Amino acid sequence: MQNNQQNNENLENDISLNSDNNSNNNSLFLDTLLSIDKLIIKKEQKELNSQQEVVKEIDNETGLLKIKFITLEKLIQFLTSSNRFDDGIAKSFIYTFQKILSAKELLSILEQKITSNFIIDSEKSSKFNEIVEYSVQIPTRKNAIQFLKSWIKTNPTPFISNKALLTQTEKLVNDHIKSISQEEANSINELLAKNKKLLDPFIHDSAFNLDQLPKSILPENLHNIKMIDIDPEEFARQLSLFFSLAFNSIQIPELLHQKWVSEILIREEAENIYKCFYVFNSIQSWVIQSILNNEDAKIRANYISHSIQIAHRCFELNNFYALFAIMSGLQSDSIFRLRNSWEHVSVEQKRQFDKLTTVVNPANNYRKYRQILSEINFPCIPFLDLILYDISLIESEHETFHEKNKKLINLKKLSAISKIVEFMQLCQLSIYKFRLVQAIHTYLDSLQPKSNFDEFLEISLKLEPKAIYQDKFCAQKCSTPRLRESISESGLILKDELAEQDKIVSDEDDEDDYLLFYDKNKKKYQIQAAIVKMLVKFLTKPRSSDQEFLQTFLLTYRSFTSPSELLNLLKERCIEEPPEDCQGANLEIFKKNQSLTKLKVFNVLNHWIKSHFYDFINDPSIIEEVQSFIENTKQIPGLEKPSEQLGDLLKKKQENQKKKVEYSKSIIFPKPILPKTTTNLKTTDIDPLELARQVALIEFDLYKAIQPKECLGEGWLKPDKETRAPNIIKMTEMFNKIGVWIAGEIVAPEKPKSRAAMISYFIKFSQKCNELNNFNSIQEVIAGLTNSAVHRLKKTWELVPPRQIELYQEMQRYLATDDNSKFYRETLKSRNPPCIPYLGVYFTDLVFIGNGNRDFISSKNGSKELINFEKRRKISTVISDIQTYQQMPYFFEKVPEIFNFIMDSISNSKDSKAIYSLSLIREPREKKKVN
């Protein structure tokens, strides 16, 4: 209370009364404010939680309840409300708010909160609610000022880069904040002045005491500079100043909206990131070109050694961006293949190269580099591409807004991004204190990146035609493939193929256990083939989140293993032991990764049970094994909660299997079209639309029952098809029966006119099926009408109205197989569920994939047969399509009289031979005329 009283006293000048009140009245007024302090807090808390504008969750690390989603309005209220300024949330928002609104918009919101006046009439000041409302404003202003101050201190770049914003801020400080608190106004003005100096685009020598700066190591000739002439130490210093210019110019909005990914907008909206790419590529190209410009292998070796020394000095200065640029040049194909040149490099330099290679090694998500980065002191220039990659990863895995309420901001996501942005800004504000050597800077500034690295390779091949790749210089300590020069036109190493590849494999993986391929469409490496143990390892790899791989695996794994074996492999992943030589820091890393692996195993099990529970229904022993696994893992620290959650999910799924599915009462079913009488019911007594509805209910139940495993190995074509694909067979049999039933219904009437009327009826029925997206029944009608017993009825078809013939021909387009059933496929994609696709097209696709792709592929050295996972990926795409339409049922009311009539009619229908015989009776074959 004393703190609140002090705050009120500090802001006493903010109190506005319409009439002259004596000090006693003011004192009484302030006492009243203090007495209702707790009530104010309760009032604010009620406002914050009652509108469903805040979503909270338990933090796994602290066990505390934290905000996960919040609307912008509530977030601003939260940050400027009484007793509620949260420095952590404020910092996260300050670094990332430009994902949601502009700096000008945020400043306007704060200005409104700071400058708004709430005037209380002294005669009505006793009104309780009015006093409460006013009392909230005092600390709100204080917190709004505190937030503005924190913003300028934490993220000053918007104020420096935008003169209009700076002017608006200075006006706010001088016109309003000064009258509230002179001390706060002075503090904010000092911050603005200080940050102007810190973020000056170029720090000259005059900014420091020259006596404190290290003396420059200048080359003898400053007019015609070559790399070899400049001392490695001095070159590293100048490179640090040179890279700082580009790196420090990057603005936070460039990071937040992933503008660097867009090829069109990169120059305009991520200009400074583009500059960094340009500088990086220039240095990389310069290293390669400087070496290749020499015909003598010994001279090339000198340049290689000199480059290694410069890279080492950059490493010592924490200029990692320059280090990666130089190393990517040395590790390029055109340089690394120069066997004769490398032989002249000293052993000491080769060792130094090996050490630096481990730093830039992308293995385990750049584990070595990240470890070094976590322990460095500033100044520092980090590897920008990895920062961009980390932001991209967060962006791809988390939405900015709640999926069901786009007003709710994902505060957890903003917090994760803000940590990266905060580190980057700390790097930008750290300054290298070296003397600028203008001649070297002019030289560096003249460098340009090479767009075509093939030209470098051609020169390299001319210099050493017989040279081959040699791994003895660096690959002995780094089995991970080297960084390559395959940088996109924008210069983005973030998309570096080898870094992408390393997300899938690691140093300890046996290269003969897998094959990878580069997917040009998705711009990343994919698993082409692997042994089953490696597939499970990919599935449960820490820090990997490939939902497509998980879905493909769970949809198709039965084609190469069993549920029991899969469960055993997942359990093995939880009990893996560290290698014998794994000690110290490496052991700690292993333990951390193993903990993450265990959580990933639970994630896979959760998805397996949730989305593929049929595997467990069909094999109760698997349920028992999972239950046993859950009980055992409950005792392991860190797995108590995941084990409990998995047990609850398993129990819930078992209970749901016993329950009958009941639809919400809020769903309104269309009113059935009942026949006038159900006594002696005939097909034509049923309205075509209601017949289509009841048939849809029958067929959807059959369609929904099809399980992914039935689609594997063309089981529906095998001798044991009833066992391997029981539900596919049931639906196929129903398809055939309905087609035969339709043919029988048409042939049954004696009179041609009645038979023509039946044809018209079923054409109308097919139209209604089309309206209900039941493509399977459309094909059944066509199968019935094209049945030889019906097709031959020439006299009958002559009596079918032309309009019905046109509609029939239109329906036949769905059966057309020209251009790979293009018309049907495009129509299906354009329709929304509920829907029953025609299974025949899916089966054709699956047979085509099965015949055109081998189940196994030989490993690199031919010693192993690897599971062709790319084939499974193609099969998974088809199965996923089938599953898409299994989710949404038809909401029609089942009419027992019609439903049972259809089922009985289908069951009691004559077979094809009998129907054809009857067709011959109805319209006998015409006798051939004898000439």
Structure description:
InterPro entries: Ras-like_GEF, Ras-like_Gua-exchang_fac_N, Ras_G-nucl-exch_fac_CS, Ras_GEF_dom_sf, RASGEF_cat_dom, RASGEF_cat_dom_sf. Residues 1-61 form a coiled coil. The chain has 45 helices and 7 strands. Helix 6 (103-115) packs parallel to helix 9 and helix 15 crosses helix 19. The chain is elongated and about 115 Å long.
Helix and strand layout, with pairings?
Layout: H1 2-10, H2 23-35, H3 37-50, E1 54-58, E2 65-71, H4 72-79, H5 87-96, H6 103-115, H7 128-154, H8 157-161, H9 163-180, H10 182-198, H11 232-247, H12 252-256, H13 266-269, H14 271-292, H15 297-316, H16 320-330, H17 333-336, H18 339-343, H19 347-360, H20 363-373, H21 384-397, E3 408-410, H22 411-429, H23 438-445, H24 453-463, H25 497-502, E4 514-519, E5 524-530, H26 532-539, H27 547-556, H28 563-574, H29 584-611, H30 614-617, H31 620-633, H32 640-658, H33 688-704, H34 721-724, H35 726-747, H36 752-771, H37 775-785, H38 788-791, H39 794-798, H40 802-812, H41 818-830, H42 839-852, E6 856-858, E7 865-868, H43 869-884, H44 896-907, H45 912-922
Keywords: Coiled coil, Guanine-nucleotide releasing factor
GO cellular component, one term: plasma membrane
Protein name: Guanine nucleotide exchange factor
How much helix is in the residues? 55-70%
**Which CATH architecture of the largest domain is right?**
Orthogonal Bundle
**Whole-angstrom Rg:** 37 Å
Give the structural class: mainly alpha
- Broad shape: elongated
Number of strand elements: 7
CATH superfamily of the largest domain: Ras guanine-nucleotide exchange factors catalytic domain
Report the top-level CATH class of the largest domain.
Mainly Alpha
How many DSSP helices?
Answer: 45
Keywords: Coiled coil, Guanine-nucleotide releasing factor
Organism: Anaeramoeba ignava
GO cellular component, one term: plasma membrane
Protein name: Guanine nucleotide exchange factor
